[in-house]
Amino acid sequence: MTTAHAWLPTSPCATSCVDDGPSRVGVVRTGVRLVGLAALVTAFPALQLIPGRGRRVGAQRRLARAGLRRCGIELRLIDARDASSPGPVFAAPDTGVLVIAAHVGWTDVLVLAAVQPIGFVARADLVDWPVLGRLARAARVVPVDRSDLRRLPTAVAQVTDLLRRGEPMAVFPEGTTWCGRASGRLRPAFFQAAVDAAVPVQPIRLRYLDPAGAVATTAGFVGTESFAGSLLRLARSSGLTAEVVLLPTLTPDRHRRELARAGQRAVHGTMASSAKRRLVPA
């Protein structure tokens, strides 16, 4: 049996932080969306059998975007990197990169996969969840039990190995979810994987916005809420936009704590007005 420790990330956000969304759809449309999500989850493992990496990646990206739409979420992708960036993706094919982002809820996984199919560091019990568990078992998921520090080095080593093999991997260094209006400190542990594999860190600024451009907490999965409750709220919602800003990459030639601090400034800071922003059609 594991016990809590000082390193265990916690969030003060509760279900009272979460709103119902800018607008809601009717019962019939909600039901259609839920059936559609179930069909997408069932189809996902079959995508692994599509011949050709490019075709397989394209199909996975389209499926993730379809999943977002069934959660009432549209994708807005902004590239704020320089002209040498690989395009509207995290990295070129067969290129390892550690993607970091704030963590709001389970839809974060769909949002990042809608940009480029990617492996994830996720809570160890995710494989047992309804819906998402099936996706996790079919994807490149590295499980981590944050209540047990003894297992952390093994998870970091797994991520390092995948990065060295040219796999893009995503981690949410806050270690737990926040509502979207509040945020936590980025923990340095998994930045060590980028240092050891000598791959860049790709910071992502991820926000869920209402039609007026204000931060919405509808996608927040916090407190004691069940997955079923969160799924139903999103299936009923409409008018949300997941805004993903691809920020300049961080080089791994520094200590993991320095990388974590630089990542904190990037993910939660204010973008410089001189940064070049290119809206990429989603």
Automatic annotation (TrEMBL):
Give positions of region: Disordered: 262-282
Keyword Lipid biosynthesis present in the record's keywords: the answer is yes
List, alphabetically, the InterPro entries matched: Plipid/glycerol_acylTrfase
A Pfam family cross-referenced in the UniProt record is Acyltransferase
- Which biological pathway? Lipid metabolism
Outline the extent of the Phospholipid/glycerol acyltransferase domain. 97-209
Which residue spans adopt a coiled-coil conformation according to this UniProt entry? none
Q: Which domain of life is it from?
A: Bacteria
Recorded GO molecular functions are: acyltransferase activity
Keywords for this entry?
Acyltransferase, Lipid biosynthesis, Lipid metabolism, Transferase
Task: Name it.
Answer: 1-acyl-sn-glycerol-3-phosphate acyltransferase
Source organism per entry reads Skermania pinensis
